[in-house]
Amino acid sequence: MNQRSFKGYPLLLVILLITGVFAFTMPGKFLSPENLASMASQLPEFGFLALAMMLAMITGGIDLSVVAVANLSGVAAAMVLTSERLAGAMSLGSLIALAVFGALLVAGLCGLINGLLITRLNVPAILATLGSQWLFLGLAVVITKGHSVSGLPDAFAYVGNGNYRGVPVSFLALLAVAGLTALLLTRTRLGVRMYRVGGSPRVARFSGINNRRVLMATYIMAALLAGLSSLIMISRANSMRPGYGDAYLLQAILVVVLGGTDPAGGSGSVLGLLMAIVILQVSQSGLNILSFSPFFKKFTWGLALLVVMVLNHLIARRAANRIKT
Amino acid sequence: MNFRQMLKRNEFYIFLLVILFSIAVTLKNPVFVSPGNLLSLLKTSSGSAVFAVGILIVLISGGFDVSSTSIAICAQYLTVNLIMHRGWDHIAVAFLVAALLGACMGAVNAVFVAFFRLPTLIVTLGTASLFHGALLEFVGTKAVNLGDLPQCFKTFGLVSLWPKGPSALFGILCLVLAVSWAILRHTMTGRGIYAIGGDIEAARNSGFRVKRIQFFIYCYVGLLAGIAGIMHLCLIRYANPNYLVGTEMAIIAAVVLGGARITGGTGTLGGTMLGMALIVIVQKNLVLLGLSSYWEQFFVGAVIIIGVALTYGDLGSAFGRLHRRES
Q1: B 120-179 residues inside an 8 A Cβ radius of A
Q2: Complex confidence, ipTM
Q3: How many domains does one find in chain B?
Q4: What pTM was estimated for this model as a whole?
Q5: Residue A147 zone, left/alpha/beta (φ > 0; ψ -120 to 50; rest)
Q6: Which residue from B205, B183, B226, B301 is spatially nearest to B69, judged by alpha carbons?
Q7: Strand A239-240 to strand A149-150: parallel, antiparallel, or no bridges (unpaired)?
Q8: Is residue B283 part of a domain?
Q9: Residue B259: inside a domain, yes or no?
Q10: A247-251, B144-148, B233-237, B313-317: lowest mean pLDDT where?
Q11: A113 to chain B: closest CA residue
């Protein structure tokens, strides 16, 4: 399977179609600068989580703990930012730097735990992250006693709410990180090995790849992306509450599959994922303006996931038949 | 079975953990072993245990089902509304209708899994969202409180099998266990479920009708979910269409803890019940051990991780052996 060839034309068509329908039914409202900006600012915190999920799924695994990791590292960062003792001891700039470092450190440790469970104890990724999800979320609840950590310094709000020439900073950050991830996946040895491990762990091992090291790196990177997401979460909400964003888990899996990543591993591209994220955001925002209920959105996500999977299956079967004949 | 064989089984360690934890709780608070407390523990966990039986069967077949709680709440809420409109105020009708609705929703899962051969996790994630979204959007979001609830639901939860005996809900669990045990052990379909989980191609080649068995699995799991939905309603006597959804991971964790392998082909009802017992005892008794309830999720996570580590990697060799294993 060649992961480099671009197979996203159907997705692009869907984007144009949905955008066209909404723009046509709501002239002047849907494509207004305000709505575009609001869509661009809602998207990043979820986008990072989806990138994390995609990395795990490319290697044939899954990471159910991404939201929990974001919760725990968000709590860590929020506690640094609201600590009066630290605020008295250092400048605002170094406090923010410390918070960012803290969030990424906590996230990295979470990823390390996942990686150890998967590579050293041979626990299937889905079970390892199912368990660690509770562990991380539980830890966040224990630390905060279930309350939210709030009252962050105003300067930190720039991360989630700031604009650069009208474009949200967090959106630019997502684009940059997505670009780096794409480079990693297609242009580095680690990235190519991730596809190989996902395609067939056995073949990968026989061709001299250290599967354990690749998987370890994958789950640490996934957790770090969740850590980045947490920084945007706490900045946008000006607080962190354990349990925030639990609906993102299903959406992340949905978007990754929608973006053409094979849940069995071995394929998937950042470009496809980004397009799927845009589809989700555009349809969500459009349904919002048309004042559909959140339940209807839940219904359409489920439907979309099933339809896409069935279509992928039918297309794959047709392709297989064509090769045979 | 000799002692050495017993040491190799997951169930044995889970059993030890259950005993150890129970002793610890009893030392802190002797009320734990009083008949009243044990009976109430049985009553409150019977519904989850019925879910666990369904999840176990899917896991044995090599699948992964996260839609059963959504199916349960849909079946429950639809049944309550139907009974309120029609006035068929009888608990047997309620169970029958809910089981039927559950089986129909399970059949939807089965279509995607058996005919399109899609990954079960993704399918059930999709249908869970589809069913629950449809319920809230098209049926309603209003909870039915105790006052408006049909009489049969109000009283069934209070019935016990015999005076001062276990609750009727526990009786239903026993019935479900007996039927499921008979299916898994003594029917060709049951053997087929294990065979599919072990190796789906081998099962197909040896003449099992894989599609038909998969259809049976997902319908049966839906049916059990429908029954569990009514049990949950009888227990709390309040029908809220937002309840239950989100508890599926804890149930899956309990089943996995009980020794069912996610790769399929193994798993027993006894182990599942032990895993369930461990999770329930940990969840309900941390407070008795002097830890605040904030620790609940953390402990459940720790128990799951220890459980899966015991099942998959031999923990001993991971620490003891320095040379790399071929894996």
Answers
A1: 121-123, 125-137, 141
A2: 0.83
A3: 1
A4: 0.86
A5: beta
A6: B226
A7: antiparallel
A8: yes
A9: yes
A10: B313-317
A11: B305
